[in-house]
Amino acid sequence: MPPKDTEEKRQHSTPYIPYSYYECRLPESFMNVPMHWHTEFELNYIAEGKGEFLCGGQKINASEGDLLLLPPNMLHSAYPQKKHKLLYHALVFHPNLLSSSSSDRSAVECIRPIVSGTAQIHVQITPASPNYNCIKAAADQIFACVRADSARMDLLLKSELLKLFWLLEDSGNIIFHRESGNNRHELIRPALEYMAQNFREELTVEQLAGLLHLSKSYFMKCFKETAGVGAMEHLTQLRISAACDALTSTQYKISDISYQCGYSNLSNFNRQFLKKVGCSPKEYRKRSQ
User: Fold this and answer.
1) Contact, 30 vs 241, CB < 8 A?
2) Out of 38, 44, 137, 165, which residue is the most buried by the measure of CB atoms under 10 Å away?
3) Which residues lie across from 41 on neighbouring strands?
């Protein structure tokens, strides 16, 4: 597991309420969801549009009706597809909701291997997947419970989550052994984490490759296969995403935001922002207000 100080900083769960619910609209609410990880599970339901998700090194094209289940500590990101908007519902929940800390055999043999990563999850469930209608019905009930947001509905939420995992295992979407595969996403995880913490600084491919003790060419290949974009493109996405947050949550001058997000040249910042977001920083701030 990566160091705690590089984990996503947002707190998704507490001992009292061990989950959070989000309605994600891309690119309306935010441009994309940059590569990150957290110690909770994440269940996504694609309600409208199409999107590209990168989950543990796997590129997933998801569309309306698809479900995505991400285990704890999996690197992941989300982007709307070109000419498409993306609306998906996200539930981020602590493994304790599945009684993962219990010592009964269902927890020990069926839940903990998923949490620890020794069991394999097929992340994407589509309308063509086995048992989809039952899985979708359980997911609908799960999201209804979290929207109700009460202690009484949390009881039903727990039972529906356990039912969902049983359905996934029964339909072959969870396999209780580790299959050999490409672990390049684990190889570049330190670089992704370093970039997330230091995107305001001047970074180069050579510097990032050196951080991992890899050649520049091999690092570039591994990064592109994992993140779906090159390292410098990912750096730009981090900077523009931070700029979007600052434009909507502060009254700082655009020139100051540009500098704070790693751009020493305001013209370059404006050009990159327009390219990524589709409007100028000034127009973006005006729309958000």
Assistant:
1) yes
2) 44
3) 93
Give per-residue pLDDT as tens, 145-186: 999 999 999 999 999 999 999 999 999 999 876 444 445 667
User: Is 48 in contact with 71 (CB distance < 8 Å)?
Assistant: no
The residues facing 22 across adjacent strands are: 90
| Secondary structure (DSSP) of the chain | ---GGGS--S----SSS-EEEEEEEETTT-S-EEEE--SSEEEEEEEEEEEEEEETTEEEEEETT-EEEE-TT--EEEEEPTT--EEEEEEEE-GGGGTTT--SHHIIIIIHHHHHT-SEE--EE-TTSTTHHHHHHHHHHHHHHHHH-SHHHHHHHHHHHHHHHHHHHHTTSEESSPPP---HHHHHHHHHHHHHHHTTS---HHHHHHHTT--HHHHHHHHHHHHSS-HHHHHHHHHHHHHHHHHHH----HHHHHHHTT-S-HHHHHHHHHHHHSS-HHHHHHHH-
- pLDDT, tens digit (0-9, with 9 covering 90-100), for 10-60: 678 888 899 999 999 998 877 889 888 899 999 999 999 999 999 988 899
Query: pLDDT digit string (tens) for 226-256?
Result: 777 889 999 998 999 899 989 988 999 999 9
Distance (Å, whole) CA 138 – CA 164: 6
Rounded to two decimals, what is the model's pTM? Answer: 0.70
CA distance 196 to 102: 35
pLDDT at 8: 58
Which residues, including other chains, have CB under 8 Å from residue 286's CB and lie 6 or more apart? none
- The rounded Cα 112 to chain-centroid distance in angstroms is 21
**Residue 68 β-bridge partners:** 44, 124
